[in-house]
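Supplementary Methods. Inverse-folding protocol.

Structures were first reduced to a C-alpha cell string of length 505. This string, shown here, constituted the complete conditioning input.
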C-alpha cells in the first residue's frame, strides 16, 4: 500500500513536470513570439495608415476634425437643400474634378500640362505653425516665376473642359476651421493664366461638396459660403449657404454668378418655408435662446437665418423677407429675442452682412445709375462716403473712350438703357477699369517691353482680341469687375473705380 502511494506521487510529479516544462519551454515562448509578430503587424499597419500625416501624434485631432465636418454637413443637408442640389445636378452636366496634389503625400509636382509644370515648394513644419509654401511655374523645364501662396497649399485639383485645363490651388492658414484661400490657373492654347486669390474663410472645409458643371459653354461651380459662421450659433450650427461662381477662362478669375440661378433660389425658399412650417407643429413651448456648443436653438435659428439669406439671393422683397424672419423668431423664441437682441435687429444684421464690401455676392444686375445714386435724381458723391456698393460685382457693357486720356487702365463709356453712347470722341458717363496686376505695366524695370499704350496692354492682358488697324475703341465690350471706390479728383463729377475680373466682347 505504501509502495502504491509512492508510485502515485512519482507519477503525479512526472505529469506536473511535463506540464510546466511544456508551458514554460514551448507555449510561453510561442505566445511571446505571436504577440511580438502581432505588435509588428500593428506597427506596420499604423505606419501605413499614418504615412500621409507629417505628425502621427496629430492623427486623433484629424479624426475629431473630420467628425465635426461630417456633423456640419449632416446639419445642413436638409431635404430642401438636397432637392436644390439634385435639381442643379439634373439640369447641368458635371465636370469631373481630380486631385493632383495633396499636402500630406509629400509630392511636390502639383500639375504638368503641355510645356508647363507647376511645382510646390515646402518649408517648415505645418503642425508647429512654421510651414510656408510657394509655387513655381516652369516652361520647357525653365522656371519662369515663383508665387507666394501666403499659407499652406493643401490641395491642387484639376479639371479639363472645352480643351482648357483648370488647376485650383487651395491654401490653408492653419487655424481652427479658418482660413482657406483659392486660386485658379488656366491653360489654353499654350498660354498659362494665373487668377486672383479668393478668400474662402471656412468654406474650404466643405470643398469636397463643390459641384463643377457646364453652363452655356462655361465652367461653373456650386459651393457653400461660410460668411455666417458662428452667427449667433456654435460653429457646428453655422449656416453654410449655396452660391455660384463661374471661372473665367481668359483671366482665371472667379466670377460671382448667383444671379443667374434666381429661379432655383426661389424654389429653395419655398421648400425651406414648408420645412419651417412642419417644425412649428412640433413646438410645445417657446424656447429660451441660447448659443454655444450643441445649443438646442442652433437647428431652428440656422434654418430661419438660412431661409432669410436664400430669400435675399432669390431677389425677394427685402421687407417681406425680414418680416417673415421676425414673425418666425417670435413664434419659436421667448420674447423673440436672439442673445438679448430683437429679431428685427438680427434680420438687419443679416441684410447688412449680405450687402457688405467683404462679401462678393453677385451684384451684376446693378446699373450704372444705381451705383452712382442717380436713379431717382442726382446726389453728390465723394470719395470718403463711396457709393455704398463697394465690394459688389458689376457686369457692364461699354465702349472705350477716345475723349479721355488713357492711363493706368481703361476709361470706358457705359452703355445701357439709360446711356446710349454714340460718339466716343465726346464726354460720357464713364468708369475707370484697372487692376493691381497691371498697375506697374509702365515700369520698364518690371515690364521692359512697355510701349506706352495702356488700352492695348490691358486688352492683351485679359486676352481680348482686337484689330489695331480697325476702330476697336468703338466696339462694345463687357466688363466684369468689383466696385472698389470712387475717383473724384480729376473731373467735375465722381466716377466708379472698377477692379477688373474679366473683359470680353
Amino acid at each position: 500500500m505504501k509502495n502504491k502511494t509512492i508510485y502515485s506521487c512519482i507519477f503525479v510529479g512526472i505529469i506536473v513536470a511535463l506540464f510546466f516544462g511544456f508551458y514554460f519551454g514551448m507555449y510561453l515562448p510561442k505566445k511571446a513570439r505571436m504577440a511580438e509578430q502581432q505588435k509588428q503587424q500593428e506597427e506596420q499597419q499604423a505606419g501605413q495608415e499614418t504615412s500621409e500625416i507629417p505628425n502621427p501624434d496629430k492623427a486623433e485631432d484629424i479624426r475629431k476634425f473630420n467628425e465635426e465636418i461630417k456633423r456640419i454637413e449632416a446639419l445642413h443637408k436638409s431635404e430642401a437643400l438636397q432637392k436644390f442640389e439634385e435639381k442643379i445636378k439634373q439640369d447641368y452636366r458635371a465636370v469631373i474634378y481630380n486631385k493632383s496634389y495633396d499636402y500630406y503625400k509629400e509630392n511636390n509636382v502639383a500639375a504638368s500640362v503641355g510645356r508647363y509644370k507647376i511645382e510646390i515648394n515646402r518649408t517648415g513644419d505645418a503642425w508647429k505653425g512654421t510651414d510656408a509654401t510657394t509655387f513655381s511655374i516652369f516652361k520647357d523645364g525653365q522656371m519662369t516665376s515663383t508665387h507666394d501662396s501666403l499659407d499652406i497649399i493643401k490641395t491642387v485639383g484639376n479639371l479639363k473642359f472645352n480643351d482648357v485645363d483648370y488647376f485650383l490651388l487651395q491654401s490653408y492658414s492653419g487655424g481652427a476651421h479658418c482660413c482657406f484661400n483659392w486660386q485658379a490657373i488656366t491653360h489654353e492654347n499654350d498660354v498659362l493664366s494665373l487668377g486672383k486669390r479668393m478668400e474662402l474663410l471656412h468654406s474650404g472645409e466643405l470643398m469636397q461638396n463643390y459641384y463643377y458643371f457646364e453652363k452655356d459653354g462655361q465652367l461653373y461651380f456650386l459651393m457653400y459660403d461660410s460668411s455666417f459662421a458662428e452667427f449667433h450659433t456654435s460653429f457646428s450650427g453655422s449656416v453654410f449657404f449655396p452660391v455660384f461662381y463661374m471661372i473665367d477662362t481668359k483671366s482665371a478669375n472667379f466670377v460671382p454668378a448667383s444671379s443667374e440661378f434666381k429661379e432655383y433660389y426661389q424654389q429653395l425658399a419655398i421648400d425651406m418655408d414648408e420645412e419651417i412650417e412642419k417644425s412649428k407643429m412640433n413646438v410645445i413651448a417657446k424656447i429660451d435662446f441660447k448659443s454655444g456648443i450643441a445649443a438646442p436653438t442652433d437647428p431652428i435659428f440656422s434654418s430661419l437665418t438660412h431661409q432669410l439669406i436664400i430669400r435675399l439671393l432669390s431677389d425677394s422683397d427685402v421687407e417681406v423677407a425680414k418680416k417673415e424672419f421676425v414673425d418666425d423668431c417670435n413664434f419659436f423664441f421667448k420674447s423673440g429675442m436672439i442673445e438679448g437682441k430683437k429679431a428685427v435687429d438680427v434680420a438687419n444684421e443679416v441684410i447688412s452682412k449680405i450687402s457688405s464690401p467683404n462679401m462678393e455676392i453677385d451684384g451684376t444686375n446693378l446699373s450704372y445709375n444705381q451705383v452712382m445714386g442717380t436713379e431717382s435724381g442726382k446726389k453728390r458723391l465723394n470719395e470718403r462716403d463711396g457709393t455704398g456698393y463697394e465690394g459688389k460685382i458689376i457686369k457692364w457693357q461699354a465702349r472705350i473712350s477716345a475723349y479721355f486720356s488713357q492711363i493706368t487702365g481703361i476709361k470706358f463709356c457705359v452703355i445701357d438703357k439709360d446711356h446710349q453712347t454714340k460718339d466716343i470722341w465726346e464726354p460720357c458717363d464713364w468708369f475707370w477699369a484697372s487692376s493691381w496686376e497691371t498697375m506697374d505695366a509702365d515700369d520698364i524695370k518690371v515690364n521692359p517691353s512697355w510701349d506706352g499704350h495702356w488700352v492695348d496692354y490691358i486688352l492683351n492682358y485679359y486676352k481680348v482680341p482686337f484689330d489695331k488697324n480697325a476702330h476697336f475703341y468703338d466696339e462694345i465690350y463687357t466688363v466684369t469687375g468689383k466696385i472698389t471706390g470712387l475717383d473724384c479728383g480729376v473731373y467735375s463729377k465722381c466716377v466708379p473705380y472698377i477692379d477688373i475680373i474679366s473683359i470680353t466682347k
